Amino acid sequence: MPSLKNFGEGLLRGLKVTLNHAGRKWITVQYPEQKLNMSRRVRGTDIIWDRESCISCRACERACPVQCISMAVSRGEDKKLKTDDITIDFGLCIFCGLCIEACPTGISIYLGNTYANTNYRCSTFAGAKTGATPSDGRCREIVRANDELLVDDAARPRSGYYRPEIAAALPPQTLLVNQTTYIEDLRKRGQK
User: Fold this and answer.
1) Positive or negative CA dihedral for 37, 40, 42, 44?
2) Contacts of 87 (CB under 8 A, 6+ apart)
3) Is the CB of residue 166 less than 8 Å from the CB of residue 160?
4) 130-146 tens-digit pLDDT
5) Residue 182: its H or E element
6) Model confidence, pTM
């Protein structure tokens, strides 16, 4: 017959472990209500283009190792190059950052600072896998062009990858480092 002493010993050990961990910060977060900030120099899942500063030299297109960037360029009335059409296939992009490093202006193309970039639909192009462009046979929803790529720091913040002046303005990293609790985030939102 088991002794009365051993009867509650396991229960007490379990409660001790629970109490030891009760004061710790949470490892998981309440996503999507609470989003953690990635590193300021992260290679996010977006490419952001600045039409105003782009000189249409196509250096980003040439630097891309998977040829996911496609640009159509022409001369304007002032004899300067202008971008008529720019398309990026995010199904092909490996987010290597070579397009950002190749840009001679240093301010025309950026990687995004987001990681929640998903699509729920996938409709293929008409004539998929029969054309000559890299996007043939891919989902239409993961190909972005022209105005969809423009700078919008509220919806699609720029990463500080290869751009230290952008990194200085981004919020500090909370993913795996300096993580805040859900209650602390709620308090910060209430103070704004």
Assistant:
1) positive
2) 69, 70, 71, 135, 143, 144, 145, 146
3) yes
4) 445 545 566 777 888 89
5) helix 182-191
6) 0.72
